[in-house]
Amino acid sequence: MGRIIALREAIREGMCEEMRRDPNVFLMGEEVALYNGAYKVSKGMLAEFGPNRVVDTPIAELGFAGIGVGAAMNGLRPIIEFMTWNFAVLAFDQIVNNAAKTLTQSAGEFKCPIVFRGPSGSAGQLAQQHSQSFESWLANCPGLKVVSCVDPYDAKGLIKSAIIDDDPVCMMESEMLYGLEGEVPEHEYYVPIGKAAVRTEGTDVTIVSYNKMMEVCKAAVLELAKEGISAELIDLRTIRPLDIDTIVQSVKKTNRLIVVDESWPFASISSEVSYQVQKYAFDYLDAPVTRINTADTSLGYAPTFVQEFLPNPDKVIKAVKSVLYVK
Amino acid sequence: MPEVLSKPKTTKKQDSKSNSYDKSIWLQWFEVMYRIRKFEERTLMAYSQQKIRGFCHVYIGQEAIAAGLVTAIRKEDAVVTAYRQHGIALSRGISSRSCMAELFGKETGCVKGKGGSMHFFSAEHRFFGGNGIVGAQIPIGTGIAFAEQYKGTDLLCVTMFGDGAARQGALYESFNMAMNWKLPVIYLVENNGYAMGTSIERTSNVHELYKIGAAFDMPSKPVDAMDPVAVHESLIEAAKYCRQGSGPFFLEMNTYRYRGHSVSDPGNYRSKDELEYYKTLDPVITTESRILTENIANAMEIQSIKDKIHLEIDDAIKFAEESAYPAPEGLYEDNYVQQDYPYIKD
Q1: Is B3's pLDDT higher than 50?
Q2: A223, A291, B29, B276: which one has the fewest Cβ atoms less than 10 Å from its Cβ?
Q3: Architecture of the domain defined by A3-184
Q4: ipTM confidence
């Protein structure tokens, strides 16, 4: 029997378990300690682990990300929380030029076992600077691993895998879905980095997605089932390395693929999935790979913009019908 | 590390020479502050009714800074600030209607419903935003000043930021270049004591922010920013210094926000005693009582300003409510100046 917990609790449990196991693991970021986390992910952690291991920082993303990198090079296992990945843009120098490069630059002399984590993607009417998805930016960079999930079971298992991983891992969460509930087992477990999950088995079309857009896809799959369309839904969970085998296996069965991706379309996760599928399953495709991304624009504040900008179940259903050539 | 939360601090009182200011200036200060206070109170109400969404940071408590700004610098001078910006936008002359409609996300807003609470802009009013990333506007304001120097004007840029932003590296890089090149920029830190939930004592060893300027040999001063007179006078001095080509000036405005960081922050990290203490310094109330006790103006004159503002804000709310949301296709406007830009739409 499992327990039902929210995404924020799942991430917290994963961090706490690893911090109890390994004294070299610590959490650092803005408002993580005394305030209990801007989104309460780290609630109670200061009380359990004390101020040396749950460390509040000033608003200085470049600085504390770099402090994390240095600490990781010198034997610790930092978890660096960004209040949102939008603010982590300031820290990209340390993530991309250092965390991702330390091992190669030093020819293996130094590794950088660090986790950068925080919410990615839109979260309502937050306007241009607070509504961006960074999976494709980070996944573009060799040296980084990128995890993006909202299912509490996956999140707990993946944050644990990320913390014990000897390479830098970026964990992408969701501001809007920190309250999303799901079942986790009583016993300890890890979810491996680099493995997708087939959420719903189906025969007519494969839908690939990740993070918050999984909820959109689940709703679409239910609607499609009512119309007798059997969709197979795959949750990537890890963006880099991409589990292309699971996708290709599914496409060989369904012969059709829709990618639902909260990235801007240009050089997105959907671009990469589409490329690999045409390369490895070309002879199995009965329709062009079709994708639904956010609009190729910045996201303005008004509700009408948010509605237009994001993928939604109707857009997914329409795309599925188009690749099935049904009205 | 956790420690006792900040105690009420004594702000440094300067000698305000009220008699040297005309009645009209006093009433102007009061009007600017009262407008902001009422605007923000209605903003909070509309937020609770879900007419305003997203992140929303009100200016209640910090109004004296906006007031001093109105009388100390020119209309043509530039201002750039962060996301706690409604009050500054109003003080630059952007109308209550246009600001409230923006908060409601309507097409009649000052940026057509695109920016919301954090991103007001107006070229006409030389208001350069409205920045949502902590500290990002510090180099931007420095660049606006660079452009004025480059063009050979005697205009300046007031670059505003909160105490939280003072810990960003961007400040140190900007201060250095501005000093090196003697740029006409007034750096104005609004020190309200808290970077979101983190008190200033917990973010640095240096609690008196004006002292940061010393590392760059930048003239720097602390100001009692609960007092519009002190704000005005410090800005007059700084502006004069900038305009004569002497370079940047750094002002630490010691102020307080009566509300949480944003509407979703209850502000539990502050003590009741602290809040009560600062309420005794409320710039709107103390300015009003000073005007009355020093016979600068009478109660009727004050009341007529209040009546005017009440009508103005009521009208702004009505205007915002009755305006339309922007058409969804508006997403594809203003991403590029190029009108026929080929967006990916598949």
Answers
A1: no
A2: B276
A3: 3-Layer(aba) Sandwich (3.40)
A4: 0.94
